[in-house]
């Protein structure tokens, strides 16, 4: 019996538990423990789904759904699950480095190598990317007054490809090992000669699946923004979040292709003996560095721009004021997007090119600092003349302004080739990009969750626990990463599992304390969600406008109906809902309702995701029958789908009317609340606009505001 | 070095103000040559200039938050969204600053180009990055070392680098910054040490299990001491021939520096030629029989267990 | 907006099928964007080839030794003619909605396309056997095979798509979906021409001239 024909290169020793049995050590036990948690977590989910009889609803209402709102939520859930793994990996690395001053600590060098590789890969491709994609999915169509994205099925396919990549990385916890080449996977180290085994293959295929998913997402969102805006919604009336979504989408369209090309070339080197990046035979790893960073640098702006959009929404809403310098924010965003393609070389100033080339790219990098600085001060000026409420998202925003600008300073330092020569590949660099990504992107996404959660689920998140988590996250970040700047300047290299210099110890201890605080913050955030679900009756805000919002998404019920807008809105300003509330024209019944066509749910996307995952797994382990079968099945699903007719269903006007009139009646029956009551049970999602508050007596009660008839 | 006095003060003040009393061997915070000194002072210049945009935020934000908090004293102007003066300021200041920073960057980058020799008649040292050690060849002196770089004080040094294995990043922080060493290619780093003493050098690019301990000693000695060191080294019986190099290609960690009394001439070029086109040297693969070389050979399990 | 204001590049349905033209707006724009990102992929492959064809030859053969310009020229003719035939298919779809003539033109397109792929495979075979120029020999050949191979893979998937469209024409006739899909396939097919012209010029002509 030829087992290799069936199982490829998988053997008994491929399973992580075999390592613990053959070579019992703390490092192996931790690896097995992680594998066990992954297996038990999957088992627990299966049991929970079975006991609660949730399989059918999960399949019928979620996995097969092509509704942008559900797709968005599934993206964010994926991101949070992967975040849980990667943040624990981060803390483990901190603990190892703390314990490994002048000895080798408790993790093996190999295990540590896998940890920094999975941590980076997951955080970028399977936390940050799905998080921003999920958010753009949920919010952007609502803000431009659309019923869905342009290509809903394609959207679901993007999601499923991303999940397939995430599953592949989770599988690497249990079967085989992951790459030790870091998230950048520089050859020739990741070539077959220096990294035999499946680790790098896991990286290649997981990243490739994610990157194809992101390309399709970018395409989809760009078309949506260009073609599906509601009447009157000119580009310059779009909320800033939509502008940043547009820029990010354009970056995705252009930037993901170099990554796909690089991973394909690396795969050909490894599987078929090609010579793109090998030592010798004409291979040249410098080409990889260029391709990777041609993707990699725009990628950081792909991540940060949507977060910038969130910050713009948050600061305007919680200052109860227009955003300052809308136009300049738009142009600044566009400048950043364009310039992001002109600076990739600053990731390898140290590769030996001429000083002139280095200087040009260094200056280009500094130029990006200009629009970014403008944005930061635009947000500050937005608060001027406002009435600031210190809610959880706003606390995150204030923290962002202060820490991000410091990260910007270290970024400008790194843009200097002379300084980069010293701190490149050290913990200084690690501190810098965490300084941009954690307060900027990650906290931006956390703020977004606090901000839009009531929109998605109809109830607010518990404010006290939210603030508590902020007060762990913010100082936790400072403690965990600012010492790294100093360590880097002292010469501590990144990706190093043990040290010889005892002077590092106190700084590593501080960083460890920070990591513990961050973990506590995450635990509090999870608690916050659980507590809020339990108390959802008290926190309910079904009327849709808990924060005195300004854009269209707040004008509809929470959660929104499948069709989003009963009648497509017409817009005549940048703050349509705010203006309507002020003018008393919000919540008007439309004159007529029409039938609405929405796409039916379909098994196409989850099947494609399933076969893509099997295909990638087969490739990793050289299970060729699985590769062929799953590839054929994947395309069979696509072809079969192209023959399906009746892919849309009609929601009759009467249904839409009944739902919408019930909503409007509920709004009219509920008194609006002032911002003083924002965090009380009285806030059901009907707001008295801050700008009307304290005005004429009849208005201050809120009872009559906005009721038009 | 004129600017070093003034700017160096600022430079030292920035980090030192935040973390007093800490300085480290093996870091550019303790420069032992003009390049590293220039880098730390440039660090200071840029940091200081950046304060122009950072300080206003740290001053203004608390004031704004206090004044315009709900219930604060500030006037509520919900529809205020633009002011030409402010607009000019928030675009103008960063643009001017970027101009200043860019000028400083341009000057510093060209002046401290790692390829620019730091004086006449530099000492040539050829560096081969290996897993997980560095081989230093002194072609003029005819000696070679493993994981020990001996340098004369106050004499310009030109390091030519290549790799016999994966890409590595070579740095001696107290002297100068990093440059990559890549197989089949040659990069260059010019340094000058202006005080004697032992410095740390290392690889900063992850290259496998022995990466964490891949550092080497850089001994800066007076010119006379260096000449004496060359003579002592020449007297060593150990020699590095082609077969010996093949042994070095095997991944290993070196516990004690090794001195070679002589080495096969042109070894550096042969290492490059073994990867680069047109030169029929064939591929250099590990797998020669082990000699009695004093470095330990580790397989992965042993290394992992360390 | 009037119909004429919404004209998009390529064959438009405005005038013959207003409803189809209306629906084309979004999907064709989306497909143009897809083509753009596909072209970025090709751009990257071209750039890689440009670097590798100079620096990555190593001990393997150079471009001038392995390329057969005659075959490449014939391939160019085949592909351009197939594009031409597709143009007729689309015109037949737009003005006549005649299944037979559309299918006939698609058949011509397909045969030319298959001949193109066949000739290219034959090129590979000759290179591998006569010159021992396989992709494992050098970085230059790796890049050559990846660039032309990716193009050939695109052409092949275009052929599969064409076959499926032929079936759909037979099954569904010319309903809106089928028309829009044919229009997108046409764009895809023409883009592959553009890419091939690039390959013919930069890879073959420049390669032999060097």
3D architecture notes:
The complex is a heterotrimer of chains A (709), B (306) and C (210). By secondary structure, chain A is an all-alpha fold. Chain A has a single domain, classed as Cytochrome C Oxidase, Chain A (Up-down Bundle). Chain A has 23 helices and two strands. In chain A, helix 3 packs across helix 7, helix 10 runs parallel beside helix 12 and helix 15 packs antiparallel against helix 16. The C terminus of chain A is likely disordered. Chain B has a six-stranded mixed β-sheet. In chain B, strands 4-10-9-6-7 form a five-stranded mixed β-sheet. The relative contact order of chain B is 0.13. Chain B is α+β, with helices and mostly antiparallel strands. The longest helix of chain B is centred in the N-terminal third of the chain and has 35 residues. By secondary structure, chain C is mainly α. Chains A and C meet through helix 8, helix 9, helix 10 and helix 21 of A and helix 1 and helix 5 of C.
Structure summarized in a few sentences:
Chain B has 306 residues and is α+β, with helices and mostly antiparallel strands. Chain B has seven helices and 15 strands.
The span between the termini of chain B is 46 Å
Low-confidence parts of chain B lasting 5 or more residues at pLDDT below 50? 1-24, 278-306
CATH class of the largest domain in chain B: Mainly Beta
Oligomer: heterotrimer
> At CATH's second level, what is the architecture of the largest domain in chain B?
Sandwich
Computed Rg of chain B: 25 Å
The overall pLDDT average of chain C reads 92
Shape of chain C: elongated
Number of E-state strands of chain C: 0
- Structurally, the number of domains of chain B stands at 2
Largest sheet of chain B: 6 strands, mixed
Q: Percent of residues of chain C in beta strands?
A: under 5%
Run of helices and strands of chain B? HHHEEEEEEEEEEHEHEEEHEH
Subcellular location (chain A): Cell membrane
Pfam families (chain A): COX1
Transmembrane segments (chain A): 29-51, 72-95, 115-139, 151-175, 202-226, 238-268, 288-311, 323-345, 357-374, 395-415, 427-453, 465-487, 507-526
Keywords (chain A): Cell membrane, Copper, Electron transport, Heme, Iron, Membrane, Metal-binding, Respiratory chain, Transmembrane, Transmembrane helix, Transport
